[in-house]
Amino acid sequence: MKIAVIGGGAAGFFSAITAKETFPNAEVTIYEKSAKFLSKVKVSGGGRCNVTNACYDNKELSTFYPRGANFLRKAFEQFNTLSTIEWFKKRGVELEALSDNCIFPKSNSSQTIIDCFEFEARKLGVRCIIQTPIISIVPDEYSNFKLITNGDSISVDRVIYTIGGQPKITTLEWLTHLKHLIVAPVPSLFTFNMPNESIRELMGIVNESTSVRIEKSKWIADGPLLITHWGMSGPAILKLSAFAARELAEKEYQFAVLINWLDQMKEEELRQILQENKVIHSEKKISNYNPFGLKSRLWIFLISKSGCIETTRWKDLQGKLLNRLVNNLINDRYSVEGKTTFKEEFVTAGGVDLSLVDVKNMQSKVISGLYFAGEVLNIDGVTGGFNFQAAWTTAYIAGKNVGINKAE
Ligand SMILES: Cc1cc2nc3c(=O)[nH]c(=O)nc-3n(C[C@H](O)[C@H](O)[C@H](O)COP(=O)(O)OP(=O)(O)OC[C@H]3O[C@@H](n4cnc5c(N)ncnc54)[C@H](O)[C@@H]3O)c2cc1C
User: Fold this and answer.
1) How far does residue 346's CA lie from ligand 1's centre (Å)?
2) 123: Cβ contacts below 8 Å, ≥ 6 apart
3) CA atoms of 71 and 59, how far apart (whole Å)
4) b/e string for 73-88 if b means 16 or more Cβ within 10 A?
5) Which residues contact residue 273 at a Cβ distance below 8 angstroms, ignoring those fewer than 6 apart?
6) The pTM is what?
7) Handedness of CA 262, 197, 195, 294 (dihedral sign)
8) CB 212 within 8 A of CB 237
9) Which residue intervals of the chain bear CATH 3.50.50.60?
10) pLDDT, tens digit, 9 for 90 and up, residues 282-333
11) For residue 348, how far is its CA from the centre of ligand 1 (angstroms)?
12) Fewest CB within 10 A of the end CB: N or C in the chain?
């Protein structure tokens, strides 16, 4: 049996290795379009490769995926984060979790992961071919496939399609001709540009517990927020950009965010704290006493924005001044005009629609013998090792099942 794996990235290698281990008599070949395998793995996690995440509950794990959560929840029953750690350990790669739950190779180098994959593929006899883009795949009348490459065609029995996230829908057009549904791609994981907001002067400040909401939408995210010279970044913003990716694309990245700098504090509690401080610290200058532990430059910015001047004392905090401060602390509005890719660590939301993929084996429900894995699927996660985990999980399932008799 000839198994073709299209794409020599994370999902390609993981599925090819699993397929060859499971079906040793099969001829497994990886076809990679570029001159290098695993190039995204190489640059991932700032060159350290955030392999997975120390979240060991499948239900909780699935909540980190804006698209594909339900599908993955079932898939994780076959291969989850613990399986990943075990898989690498068995092959001599020790992983370690950091305090934020991100898991990296102990070597702190993505090359360790690449070496592991290349060694395993060589050991098992997986054929690895570079500079061979597969432009389309044609199922023939014998339920086999013809891979169409530059002016050539290659006949195979099974295909695992792992070409990664595709920014243009045209790459997947051949699938639509075969009645597959494709969800139009939009970018995910980006930071917010605020060219007209003076808060950019505070670049470098991180506010640890922040709640960010997109105005006139249901989208809200919590976590640290980083002020940058172009606007806002940090985990809360990235999470929001992922969950609201499609809606923000529709808005052409022109929208407003409402920020609660005090995590999820409600107005009633905030007013009470402010009242108490008015009594206890009545003679103190507001600029000199910040009861919320905010970074002092941020506190000064927010009180100035509310109308306080250097000499304003706590006892002066009333009427409009008080209302403005309440608003700026928990409902602070900023206009966003555009996006910036986060350290180039973007992923694509969209791709092969999951409704036509069988989660039990990753086989197409439309084209028997065609399997999918990795980011080409309409699956994407937030930062923290979740995107690779989705690649390992779907690739493992595809590899385990690709050699089983085709469905009628
Ligand atoms: C800079 C950066 C850093 C990242 N860091 C992390 C991280 O630390 N942790 C994490 O979880 N996620 C990270 N991600 C996301 C993660 O890299 C991807 O989700 C993951 O690589 C997806 O794996 P894949 O195999 O599906 O796709 P890819 O890794 O993109 O591999 C697809 C392969 O297919 C090849 N290909 C494409 N078209 C064809 C064709 N027609 N014929 C043949 N070959 C083809 C491509 O050249 C490529 O080699 C990062 C992403 C970026 C961009």
Assistant:
1) 10
2) none
3) 11
4) bebbebbbbebbbebb
5) 291, 292
6) 0.93
7) negative
8) yes
9) 2-187+343-401
10) 999 999 999 999 999 999 999 999 999 989 999 999 999 999 999 999 999 9
11) 10
12) C
Cβ of 75 less than 6 Å from ligand 1: no
At 406 the pLDDT is: 61
Ligand 1 pocket mutation pick from 32, 37, 44 by most atoms within 8 angstroms of CB: 44
Distance of CA 19 to the CA centre of its chain: 26
* Assigned token pair, 168: 């243009």
CA distances from 131 to 34, 121, 309, 372 (A): 5, 18, 65, 21
Query: What mean pLDDT do residues 25-35 have?
Result: 98
* Residue 313 alpha carbon to ligand 1 centre in Å: 55
**Beta bridge partner(s), residue 256:** 335
Report pLDDT for 408. 44
Measured CA to CA, the distance from residue 20 to residue 27 in angstroms comes to 8
Q: Which two tokens stand for residue 106?
A: 């102990």
Q: Comparing C-alpha atoms, which of 168, 156, 177, 169 is closest to residue 6?
A: 156
CATH 3.30.428.10 describes domain 2-187+343-401:
no
Mean pLDDT of the chain: 95
Q: Is 45 in the pocket of ligand 1 (CB under 6 A)?
A: yes
Question: Could you tell me if the CB of 351 is within 6 A of ligand 1?
Answer: no
CB half-sphere exposure, 359, CA atoms < 13 A: 17
Q: Does 336 have pLDDT greater than 80?
A: yes
| Residue to mutate, 110, 137, 163, ligand 1, most ligand atoms under 8 Å from C-beta | 163
